[in-house]
């Protein structure tokens, strides 16, 4: 799971242009929005598209479940891992 979390951290940095950050700067359990990285809804859209492109993940933007998956790097990694198994 750590390798997948690292991939997702790198994807976040690359997709959102967070040039001043390194993967180690992102706590895998920290909130991605508001208090944690401080991402916003535009960032969520960009990140969702990147996840879809890289991992073939399909999710509804309005679903409560999707909001849960976008809570942290770890929850995103769990989503990717679960969809890979199915």
Count of DSSP-assigned helices: 4
- Order of helical and strand elements: HHHH
Largest sheet: none
Structural class: mainly alpha
The average pLDDT value, as a whole number, equals 91
Question: Helix content range of the residues, please?
Answer: 55-70%
Computed CA radius of gyration, to the nearest angstrom: 12 Å
- Uncertain segments are none
Rounded to the nearest angstrom, the distance between the terminal CA atoms is: 17 Å
Oligomer state of the chains in this structure: single chain
Shape: globular
Number of E-type strands: 0
What portion of the residues fall into strands of 2 or more residues?
under 5%
Secondary structure layout:
Elements (H helix, E strand, L loop, with lengths): L1 H15 L24 H15 L8 H6 L3 H13 L1
Helix pairs in contact: 1-2, 1-4
How would you describe this protein?
With 86 residues, this protein is mostly helical. It contains four helices and no strands. The protein has helices at residues 2-16, 41-55, 64-69, 73-85. Helix 1 (2-16) packs across helix 2 and helix 1 (2-16) packs across helix 4 (73-85). The mean pLDDT is 91.
């Amino acid at each position: 799971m750590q390798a997948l979390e690292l991939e997702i951290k790198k994807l976040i940095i690359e997709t959102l242009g967070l040039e001043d950050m390194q993967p180690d700067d992102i706590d895998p359990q920290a909130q991605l929005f508001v208090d944690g990285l401080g991402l916003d809804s535009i960032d969520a859209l960009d990140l969702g598209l990147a996840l879809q492109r890289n991992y073939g993940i399909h999710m509804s933007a309005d679903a409560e479940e999707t909001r849960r998956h976008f809570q942290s790097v770890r929850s995103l990694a769990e989503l990717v891992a679960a969809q890979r198994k199915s």
